Amino acid sequence: MLSRVANSIYWMNRYIERAENIARFVDVVRHLVLDLPDQVSNQWESLVEATGDSEAFKKRHGEATEASVIQFLTFDRENPNSICSCLWSARENARSVREVISSEMWEQVNRSYLMVKSPQACDRVDDEPSEFFSHFKKACHLFVGITDATMTHGEGWHFGRVGRLIERADKTSRMIDVKYFVLLPRIDYVGSPYDSLQWAALLKSLSAFEMYRKQFHHISPKHVAEFLILDRQFPRSMRYCLIKAEESLHVITGSPPTTFSNHAERCVGRLRAELDYADIQETLDAGLHEYLDEFQIKLNGFGDAVYETFFALLPVPA
Amino acid sequence: MDFKSYQPDAFYDELFQGPGQPRAGAGLLVDRIEALPDGELTRRQQAAEAALMNLGITFAVYGDQQGTEKIFPFDIIPRIVEPHDWRQIESGLKQRIQALNLFLDDVYHDQKILRDKVIPEEVIRSASSFRKQCVGLKPPKGVWCHITGTDLVRDNDGQFYVLEDNLRCPSGVSYVLENRQLMKRTFPQVFEASRVRPVDDYASRLGQTLGHLAPKNLSDPTVVVLTPGVYNSAYFEHSFLAQQMGVELVEGRDLVVSDGFVMMRTTRGLARVDVIYRRIDDDFIDPLAFRDDSVLGVPGLMEVYRAGRVALANAPGTGVADDKVVYAYVPDMIKYYLNEDAILPNVPTYLCWRDKDRAHVLGHLNELVVKAANESGGYGMLIGPAASKQEQDAFAEKIQASPRNYIAQPVVSLSRAPVIVGDHFEGRHVDLRPYILYGEDIYVVPGGLTRVALRKGSLVVNSSQGGGSKDTWVIDDAPGAAGTRQQ
C-alpha cells in the first residue's frame, strides 16, 4: 500500500473519531451544567479553556455561552477542531483514497459532511442540541460500521483502525480530565450527590453507563476512572484502544506479539504494558490529572512513531 | 410532461425527425416518458441530481474559497444513436486512430510524410506541441495513442464530422459510466426494452489495454494511474478509473526513479511500477526532460521510459497531432498511410498561414469560428456570428500577427436534443465524444459522452463553460440482442 494512501486512511479515521468526540464533549458539558446549581461559575468558558483555543474563541465569539461555544465547536470553519472542520478534513482525505475505500464509505463521509454543512444544521443545533448531536454520533458510528462491513480487513483497514483508536484513547483521557480537573467546581463537591451525578453524566457521554453498571453497580470516582482507563473490553477505554491498536500494527508488519520490529510497535507495546499492570489507587494518589497529561504526551509520541515508520516520504538516496 | 409542443426547429434533432415524430430508435423512449404520471419526470431528474451529489461526483469550482462543489449537470433524457449511424462512427474512428498512430510514429522517426510533401515540413517545425525529446522513441508495440476521446459533431444534413481528436489526456469517460448507472436506476424498463449496447466493461478493457503495454515476461505487471492530485478538476475520474480497474492511484510524489526503474513508495518500501496511465500533460511529467518547474512529475521518468523499463499511456508527444493545423491534414494522412478515403470527414478548415485562406478568413470573420491552433476546452476561440465588431477586430489583429496559430471553420449548426427545462422540453445543442482504446486491437466504446450546451442557443458544450451531459444510447440491431431474450 502506498504510504500516502495509508496516511490518508489513518487520518480519515482520526478526523471522524475526533468529530464524534467533539459531539461527546459538548454532551458531557451540557449535562454537567444542567446538574449543577446555578451559582457555579461559567462551565462553558472552562470548556473553551480546555480546548486550548481560548484566544481565537474570544476574538470571534466574545462571551462564552452555551450557544456561542456550540457554534465554535460545531460550525466554525476557522476553528480547526470544530466538527465541521474535522469532517472537511476527513472528506478531503477520503477523496484522495476513494479508489481504495469502498464507495459506501465515501458516500457516508460525504453525506455526513453535507449534513453538517447544510444551512438547516445551524437551526437544528439551536432548537434541539441533544437530537442534533446524537444524530451526528450515529452518522459517525454508521461510518465505522460501513467500514467494518465493506472494506477488506487488510493493511488499509488496520491503518484506519490504528488512527481511530489513537484518537479515541486521547479523547477518552481528555474527557475524564474535563470532569475531574477542568470542571471541578469546588473541592467540597467531591463525594457529594452532585459529584455522583456528574460521573454518571461522563459515563453516559462516553456511551459507557450501562456497561459500567454491569461491572461495578455503584458509581464511584475510583471505579469510573478504572473502567474508562483500564477496562480490557470496553471499546472506548484507553487500555482497550491500545490493545487493539497494537494488534493492528502487528497484523500490518507481521511481527509476532510481544516483540517489536519498529519504533511504533515499541511505543505502543510499552504504553499498553503500563496500563496492563497499573493500579488505579496508585494512579489516583499520585494525581489523576498529571497521569492523564503524561498519557497524552506518550500517546502523541506513538502517533509520531507511526508517521515516521510508515508514512514519512523519506528522500531516496541518490 | 409530453413532447406535443416540442419543436425541433430548423436543426437536426437527435430524437425527432419532425414535430411529434420520434426517430425509429426513440419511439419507445418517447412513449414511456409521455406515459409517466405528472411530475414524475421532474422527480426522477431531481433524484438523479441528488444521487450525484451524495456520490460526490462533483468538480471543484476554481477560485472559490468556500470550496464550493458542483455536479456536472446531467439531463436524464438520453441521446439515442441509431445502428447505421454508429456503424459509420465506429469504422470511421478506427480508421482515423490507426492513421494517426502511423503518423505519430512517422513524425518522430523518418518523417516520410514530410519528405513526400503530403504535410508541409514547416507545419511540423512550427508546431509548439512537437516534442523533440520524443524523436526516436519506440513506444511498446509501436502504439503512441492508446486512449483517445474524439469530439464529433453533427450538422444540419445529419452528417457527423470530426471536430477534435484529443490524443493527449481526454477526460469524461467516467461520466459515461456513471451516467449509465444512473439511467439504469432512472428508467429501468425503457432501458431494458431499448436494446442499449453496454458500456460497463470499459474499465476492464482499459485494464487489458494497459496490461498489454507492460514490458515482456512479466506475469503480473503493476499498472498505476498517475494523477496531478485531488485538486485537479478531473480528479474524480482518475480515482474512479483506478478504483474500477483495481489499481493504485498515484501522485508524482509517490513515485521515484531508483536503480533504473520507476518505483512507488509503499508502507513496505519501494515497489516497481511497470505501466503508468498518466493523466498529467507531457510538459509536467518529468522535470528533467520537460518543464523543470514541474512539481507534479517524476524526475528521471523519461530516461526509464526510453530504456523500455516502464510503459506510458499515452506516449509523450501525441499532442502534435492535436495541433489544429495538423488536424486539417488527417484526411490526407488516412489516404497516405492506409490508401483509403476518410469515412468520417473533418469540418472544413481554413489555415490562416496560407495567404489565400487567411484573406478569406479575414473577409468573413462574422461567419466563421476561429480557433487558436494549440488551445482546447473551448478557450482561445471566436464565434464570428456571436461576436461584436471589436472582438472580431481583436482576432483579426491576432491572426495577422501569427497566422500559423489560427485556423477557421464554418459554423457547424450542431444537432440538438430535447432537455428538461422546468415543466417542458426544449432543444439544446449537443456533441458526442466516443472513446477509443488501442491495445491489441482497436475498440470503440459503443456510446460516449454526449455533452449539452445548456444555455439556450449556445453552441459551447464544454463543462467549463456551462455544459452538461446526457447518457448516450447506442441501439443494438443485432439479432438476438437484449429485448428479444427468452422468458
Task: Describe the structure in brief.
The complex is a heterodimer of chains A (318) and B (487). Chain A is mainly alpha-helical. Helices cover 75% and strands 0% of the residues of chain A.
Task: Please bin the fraction of helical residues of chain B.
Answer: 25-40%
* Biggest pleated-sheet summary of chain B: 4 strands, parallel
Major β-sheet annotation of chain A: none
Number of helical segments of chain B?
15
Most extensive chain contact? A-B, 26 and 28 residues
**What is the strand tally of chain B?**
25
* CATH architectural arrangement of the domain at 350-410 in chain B: 2-Layer Sandwich
Radius of gyration of chain A: 20 Å
Query: Strand-and-helix sequence of chain A, N→C?
Result: HHHHHHHHHHHHHHHH
Strand content of chain A is: under 5%
What can you see in these coordinates?
The complex is a heterodimer of chains A (318) and B (487). Chain A has helices at 3-35, 43-51, 54-61, 66-74, 83-95, 103-117, 119-127, 129-150, 155-182, 193-205, 209-216, 221-230, 238-253, 263-276, 280-286, 288-311. Chain A is mainly α. Chain A has two domains: 1-150, no CATH class; 152-318, no CATH class. The radius of gyration of chain A is 20 Å and the shape is globular. Chain B is of the alpha+beta class and 487 residues long. Chain B has 15 helices and 25 strands. Chain B has helices at residues 27-35, 40-54, 83-107, 112-115, 121-125, 173-186, 188-193, 202-211, 235-245, 282-285, 301-306, 324-327, 330-338, 355-363, 389-401, and strands at 16-18, 21-22, 58-60, 69-71, 74-81, 147-149, 151-154, 160-164, 223-227, 248-251, 255-258, 261-266, 269-272, 275-278, 311-313, 350-351, 368-372, 381-383, 406-410, 416-421, 424-429, 435-438, 442-444, 450-453, 467-474. The longest helix of chain B is centred in the first third of the chain and has 25 residues, at 83-107. Residues 482-487 of chain B have low confidence and may be disordered. Classes of the chains: A mainly alpha (318), B alpha+beta (487). The A-B interface holds A 1-6, 88, 92, 95-96, 98-100, 103, 106-107, 110-111, 114, 155, 159, 252, 310-311, 313, 316 and B 53-56, 67, 225, 229-230, 235-236, 239-240, 242-243, 248-251, 253-254, 256, 258, 264-268, 270.
